[in-house]
Write a structure and sequence with these properties.
Number of strands: 0
Low-confidence stretches: 324-335
Largest sheet: none
Strand content: under 5%
Structural class: mainly alpha
Shape: elongated
Order of helices and strands: HHHHHHHHHHHHH
């Protein structure tokens, strides 16, 4: 496409649209119809220029012009409680459901790796010695040791808030840093798996694996699931950089990035529930079976939420992104 010829052919339309936008609400009915028509044409022109003859200055001008026209045509929209309800009942669970082919394998491989690390540590005393001195290991793993007192070392409310903040930050980092070709996500996930594996190995070597699982499972099922969802979504975002599918790389990244931001908010709520369990249930005087039952119930409730509400929303076309009306026009590319 000859950009100069294209600009000369359509500049008058863009100038006319700019003129109508400056007039605001003083338009006649015919002028309002003309504004809508020019807005649609200019959006098409912008898509053509972006895909065929990118010019930064021209794209910036037309982008601003289309955004102003769109705001005028569609009107200003404010977020409402209905938007929050839709996000919680459709958008967020649909995004998690659609990402299941990434986070379920991530969860399975991570748990297997943690178990393997735990077995390796438990079976090799020299590895245990490399982790800490024998006296330090006894302080960590003995009855009333650090692994047990950790969950009751601070007031429940402040401990739950601290745990929630740390886990939410880790989940957000997995989601955001996924765009860097997955490498930071894999590292963050490995550190979490390594810490879990060390705990399994050391407590197993002390013959107290049942105590460790009784402390981890009440909150860990939901907490680790949220981390695996964040890591799997981050990996999918990183893969989008490599293979954007039937869209331009920028369009695909924008869609996946917006969904990831929404998931960060949703996962923060899930991790809040996990933090409450870790702060109030894990160190409580409830029998071990009761604490574990609470953790299993929370995990099953989350999975039902994702597969029932999320599956239903995903089947109707919800991808966890903003609505079609709020997205910029785009042109698909050949697969």
């Amino acid at each position: 496409m000859d950009l100069d010829v294209f600009v000369n052919a359509h500049r008058s339309e863009w100038d006319r649209l700019d003129h109508l936008l400056h007039r605001g609400r003083k338009l006649t009915g015919a002028e309002a119809d003309e504004l809508v028509d020019l807005y649609q044409r200019t959006a098409t022109h912008l898509s053509l220029i972006q895909s065929s003859a990118p010019d930064p200055l021209l794209i910036a001008r037309l982008t601003q012009l289309v955004a102003r026209a769109r705001a005028t045509v569609t009107g200003t929209r404010r977020a409402s409680w209905r938007d929050a309800a839709r996000f919680l009942t459709a958008g967020f669970p649909a995004a998690v459901y659609r990402a299941r082919h990434w986070w379920i394998p991530t969860a399975v491989l991570s748990v297997l790796l943690a178990a393997l690390i735990g077995w390796w540590i438990a079976a090799h005393p020299e590895v245990q010695s490399a982790i800490a001195a024998p006296d330090d290991l006894r302080r960590m793993t003995s009855p009333g040791g650090e692994y047990e007192t950790y969950y009751s070392s601070h007031p429940a409310a402040s401990f739950a808030a601290q745990v929630w903040t740390n886990n939410a930050q880790a989940a957000a980092m997995c989601l955001v840093l996924g765009a860097f070709l997955c490498v930071p996500v894999i590292w963050i996930l490995f550190l979490n798996v390594l810490n879990l594996g060390i705990g399994i190995g050391l407590m197993s070597s002390a013959g107290r694996l049942d105590t460790f699982l009784g402390l981890i499972l009440p909150h860990g099922l939901l907490e680790l699931t949220a981390v695996f969802v964040a890591a799997g979504t981050g990996l999918r975002l990183g893969w989008t950089v490599i293979d954007p599918g039937p869209h331009t790389r920028r369009t695909a990244l924008a869609q996946q990035g917006r969904a990831a931001i929404g998931m960060a908010i949703g996962l923060a709520l899930i991790l809040f529930v996990s933090g409450v369990i870790e702060g109030f249930v894990t160190p409580s005087g409830l029998p071990t079976w009761a604490r574990i039952a609470i953790g299993i119930a929370a995990e099953l409730a989350f999975l039902a939420y994702v597969y029932i509400l999320g599956g239903r929303a995903a089947r109707t076309g919800d991808v966890g992104d903003i609505s079609d009306a709020e997205r910029s026009a785009e042109l698909p590319v050949a697969a």
